[in-house]
Design a protein that fits this description.
It is built from 7 helices and no strands. By secondary structure, it is mainly alpha-helical. The protein has a domain of about 70 residues. The radius of gyration is 28 Å and the shape is extended.
């Protein structure tokens, strides 16, 4: 006979086995074809230039927050549709329940549209690439070391590109 903690342990073991099995199966099935584009560094929609001390534009985070805001708010439409679409309540109130639901949702969507208009007017939705400014950082590491690293990985990318051309 298994106790309550035994069930929890069995559940955890099954979850872990499922996770490991899924990852192992994915590793066996997926193709492994590295190329130059896959190996390049990519951060928030921009190719990095210079050292890793570059500050990225805040617009990516603002766009993500606006998306999450509207995405979460739209989730509220589903419960609204199920509650206010109740035919029995509409019949009992002589149709006023349906009008109340419609007005309530129009107010809700109006507030969302007002928020979107505010973000648009403030320029948070503009997708213009800013001028890249390389920061001046005082460090004990000489700049030549960074350049050597960049050259090393550039040569690696070139070798992979040559290998891809030879395979074709």
């Amino acid at each position: 006979m298994v106790s309550d903690f035994g069930y929890i342990l069995l559940f955890l073991i099954a979850a872990l086995a499922t996770l490991v099995g899924t990852l192992t199966l994915a590793r066996l099935l997926r193709p492994n074809r590295p190329n130059v584009e896959k190996l390049t560094t990519y951060e928030s929609g921009e190719d990095p230039e210079g050292t890793a001390n570059v500050q990225f534009n805040i617009r990516y985070y603002v766009i993500a927050l606006v998306f999450v805001l509207f995405d979460v708010e739209l989730v509220f439409l589903f419960p609204w549709a199920t509650v206010f679409g109740n035919e029995a309540l509409i019949r009992e109130t002589g149709g006023r329940w349906g009008w109340f639901a419609l007005v309530e949702m129009l107010i809700f969507l109006g507030i969302l549209a007002l928020g979107l208009a505010y973000a648009w007017v403030k320029g948070h939705l503009d997708w213009v690439k800013p001028e890249v400014k390389k920061p001046e950082v005082r460090t004990r590491v000489p700049g030549e070391l960074y350049e050597k690293l960049n050259e090393k990985y550039a040569r690696r990318s070139e070798r992979i590109a040559i290998r891809e051309k030879e395979e074709k």
